Amino acid sequence: MILRLVRVHNFSIFESAEANFGPGLTAISGESGAGKTLLLEAVRLALGGRQDAAVVRSGCDQAVIEVLFEVEPGELAGLADPDGQILVRRQISATGRSIFALNGQLSSAAAVRQAGAQLVDMTTQGEPAEILSPARQRALLDAYAGLTERLAERTRLQAELRQLEAAASALGGDERSRRRQLELLAYQTREIAAAGLEVGEEERLRQRRRLLSEREALLAALGGAREAILGGGRPGAYDLLARAQAAVGRFHALSPELEEWAEEARAILEAVQDLGQRLALMGEGVEMSQGEAAALDERLLLIEDLKRKYGDDIGAVLAFGERAAAELERLNSAESELARLEASRHTLGAQLAALDAAIWQGRQEAAQRLAPEVEAELAVLGFLSARFGIDVEGEAVRFWFQPNPGEQPQAVTAIASGGEQSRLLLALRQVGKADERRVLLLDEVDQGLGGDSAQTVARRLKDLARLIQVVAVTHQAVVASHADHHLAIGKEVVDGRTLGLIAPLSGEERVGEIARMLAGTQEGLSRDHARELLRVNLPH
């Protein structure tokens, strides 16, 4: 994979600028204060690095950074587009708010940072290198140890174990929890079945209970109504109507009208008699046996209790009981399946334990090999008395670094010097170069170096750049002279405002820049020396 393009708009001192990159080693140079590190800073921010509103060019509403990567076919599938490109865009407002996009789609900062971790290893001013984070330390050691297949196998076994545990949980979980579940389901099904509920029962019971609660008043009303209709101590409606029917009915043969009236009167008499008799029957229905009201209240309390536990009405309670009974039957029939799952879990657990032990042993052995190799590489890069070590405790991997004798060893995450970070990162990537494809971006990699040390760093950069893309901000002419590509960062004042410039260098322009890096001037012998450096260090 390679970093192909960085484009910025209203970013720091840049109004609108872009830099194109190619394979191999790219050197970035410029005079002090010109903003050499801003290109790397732009990449860091685009990939989700922390920022503040100060990166927005003064007087502008927002800054925009775009970074384009290209990968080989099939590489980073799911991240790259069909053309093998990954475009990351970040928009930073003057208030500090950011909007991210991946390949034209809005994205979260977390997703962009995750993508960036797969694309680059880098150091920038004031920010610890991501490769120096604990997770990357472990990943680098694992890659060096050749544990990729074992780690993939462990991930697969862990996924299988989770599936088995989920299946066992669906059957009732472990033996204790399964027993608890069985006891609960058995209790629930017994309680609901023992109640003998019927749909519509509650409404009938409540109606009967309301009727009984009005019993005395209702009986009095029914008795009065019956006496008014059928009579009692005095004639009722039936008696009076019967008299009228008898008085007129004996003349029914005298005219059709009388005949019709007599028939209607007889029918009404029958209806009135029926009404009175029904009132008597209703009165009998209001009669209650001893304790009936208490029994009704007890039954209604039982129904309320079951509804509170299992559903809003009797239908829902019965449905719950059916489901509980089905689940109880399923769990009771799951003994053999649980036994099989438990045996499989035991086997997987043993395999994982053995694999964990092998991974831990592999890390321990790799740490003992990697540490002296990195230490030796650091000596080549100018840390002649530095010490480097690796501690492995369980899953935790900790790199530590002692740059000078007598100083306290420190975790590499605590390294503050940009030059130390960059050269340590270079050493780690140099030793593990066969296992890493990420683009390497280094700031101040040659800080404080000169002579043979600078020449050695240049050769190491060039050597690594034959395998991966390397971009380095440099102060050293010898480093720049080894680069396949050279970018110069400068600035000028236009209409009273500073304007950043990015220029790709070749030919005499590159000779002049290297001459300036050598002697502070682009004239005289420094140009001849610059040509000689380029002749010796660049392939022809």
Fold topology:
Layout: E1 2-11, E2 14-20, E3 25-29, H1 38-46, E4 62-70, E5 85-93, E6 98-102, E7 105-107, H2 109-119, E8 120-122, H3 134-145, H4 148-170, H5 175-195, H6 201-213, H7 215-230, H8 237-249, H9 256-286, H10 292-310, H11 314-332, H12 335-380, E9 387-393, E10 396-402, E11 410-411, H13 418-431, E12 439-442, H14 451-465, E13 470-473, H15 477-482, E14 485-494, E15 497-504, H16 507-519, H17 525-537
Parallel strand pairs: 3-13, 3-14, 8-12, 12-13
Antiparallel strand pairs: 1-2, 1-4, 4-5, 5-6, 6-7, 9-10, 10-11, 14-15
Helix pairs in contact: 3-12, 4-12, 5-11, 6-10, 7-9, 8-9, 10-11, 12-13, 13-14, 16-17
Looking at this protein, list some descriptive labels:
single chain, 540 residues, alpha/beta, six-stranded antiparallel sheet, six-stranded mixed sheet, 17 helices, 54% helix, elongated
